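Exercise 7b. Backbone tokens:
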């Protein structure tokens, strides 16, 4: 087994695979479910960005006070 097989897949690889999926065979309900899941993932990603930006702002504030 190649050591790379043990490494987690990089996010861009998974996103590219998702974008390349053939969705033409999915029904309307399945497509709506997919959109709901993707919207939830977008919200989760935005929340993480906000959290990281808040942490960065707090860290910058600490170092400016010095």
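Sequence design result:
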């Amino acid at each position: 087994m190649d050591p790379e097989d043990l490494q987690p897949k990089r996010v861009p690889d998974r996103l590219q695979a998702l974008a390349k999926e053939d969705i033409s065979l999915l029904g309307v309900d399945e497509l709506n479910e997919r959109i709901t899941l993707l919207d939830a993932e977008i919200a989760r990603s935005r929340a993480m960005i906000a959290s990281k930006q808040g942490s960065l702002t707090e860290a910058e504030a600490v170092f400016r006070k010095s």
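Instructor comment: DSSP finds three helices and no strands in the chain. The helical segments are 3-6, 11-20, 28-65.
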